[in-house]
Structures are given as C-alpha cells and as structure tokens.
C-alpha cells in the first residue's frame, strides 16, 4: 500500500476520530469524508481529493472497520443502578428466602427460521423466501455452580443467620479484601506506614485523569500544522545530505572483512554474518538492463 500524499490531513482526521470514539459518537463514512475535506482546507492542501479509494486506504492504514453498535451499555444509569442495589434490592431480598431466589432469563426461539448463510457455487444466485416468524419463548436457568458468583457480582448479598444486625456492606467483595491484605504486605516490606494508604485510594488514584483531551478542530490543526523555523530555513541551502557509503564501498568492505576473518581464523564465527551482509549488498543494487547483441554492433565505428 502506497503512502499518503497528504499525511498531515490523515493525522488530523485520526485525532478527530479518536476524540469522537472516546465520546462514544457514531461515525460514518460520509462524515469522515466531510471532516477530511474540512481539515484539508484548514491545512491549505488544495490538491487533496477525498475519493472512495482514499477513504478505503485510510481505513486500511489505521485498522478502521465498520461495526454494529449493539447493546445499551453507553446509556446505562450507573449511579441509579448502585442506588437500586443499595435500597430497592435489599428490601426485596428480605421478603424471600435464599432458596427461593433464582437466576433466570428467557429468549425467543424461531424454530422454523432457516440460516441466512449457505455454501454455493460461484456462479449460483442465492435467493431466499419469506422468513418464518413461528416462535416460542425459551426459559434458561443457570446451573447451581454459577449462581453464587453471579449473585455476588450483581450485589445480591443476603444476611447471615443470627447476624442481621452486624452485617456490613462490602460492595467490593472478597477481591477487595485480598487486595487490601496484599497492599498492606507490600507497604510493610517497603517500610511505609500502613495508615497512610488504603486500597480504595490506590485504586481510584487516577479516576480523575483526563484520558481523552477535548480537542477542537482548531486545536487539532494547530497540533498538526508544521511550524516554520527561521534559523533552519536560512541554513537550508548550506546543509549537505550525507548519503553514507556507496554500494561499491560496502562491497569492498565485505571483501576486507572476509580476508581479515580468514587470516585470523575467525571464519567459523563470522562466516554466517559476512554472507548475510554480502547478500544484503547484492540485493540493494539497482536492477540492471540485460545487454542486447545489437549493443555490441552499436559500439563499433
């Protein structure tokens, strides 16, 4: 895949896309195209053409694919869920015995519906008929071995018998207790005061860290646009580019190193490396045009 002719436009568009996805905003191909044209105008790239081919290469370069937005996790009320677990759920649990509480779910089973994918010949046209809507509701019950863990993660905590008054609300569960003991052990080994830290503070130390800066379009353009340096522009004409040793010099160096290794008895150790280096020099040579027989006659007077 060839490199982009306008890398600054792609860098700006990539920053904008990361910002949009960090805010969980849906981004389509036309929207990406429109934003690329906007950045091209702001970065003074009049020759930029936002074609379908460029958009496909841009997606391939940065691993951008289309995905189906499913679920409603982004719209979940987390604070409301915590409040419900602490109040409504606890009141409901006191009205039932632990043996009468089950983890249960249901789903629709379209038992007459055929698969929508099939194996077929290349030239065969695959057409389907009307989809059958016959369905039954299937109930799923969780095995007893997983009920305890599922209930613990969902904050279903029942008071122990004879200890209702002294029940403590441990929202983090057994994992938090293990982490607390591990943190205390680490602090004691390092000679730090245990009373200065706790696992909750350690866990939430970066809770307010800004992980996705709120860049505006102008901020993105300012970060991408090249900044001219007057001192570099004045000396630009005097700078000589060092291309390094030529291919012929590298070939002579291989010959010298091979002779040195043979004289010093080091060929057993260096033969593999010298051969690899020599092969690399040969591969770096530009392709040569095969000489024709007419070239010999052309050289004659």
Automatic annotation (TrEMBL):
Keywords: DNA-binding
Broad class of where this protein is predominantly found: nucleus
Domain HTH CENPB-type: 1-68
Keyword tRNA-binding: no
Cell location: Nucleus
Molecular function terms, GO-annotated: DNA binding
InterPro entries in the record: CenT-Element_Derived, Homeodomain-like_sf, HTH_CenpB_DNA-bd_dom
Pfam families: HTH_Tnp_Tc5 (PF03221)
Annotated Gene Ontology cellular component terms: nucleus
The keyword DNA-binding is annotated on this UniProt entry: yes
Acidic residues bias spans: 231-243
SMART domains to which the protein is assigned, alphabetical: CENPB (SM00674)
PROSITE patterns recorded: HTH_CENPB (PS51253)
Residue ranges, annotated region (Disordered): 226-245
Name of this protein: HTH CENPB-type domain-containing protein
Native organism: Rhipicephalus microplus (Cattle tick)
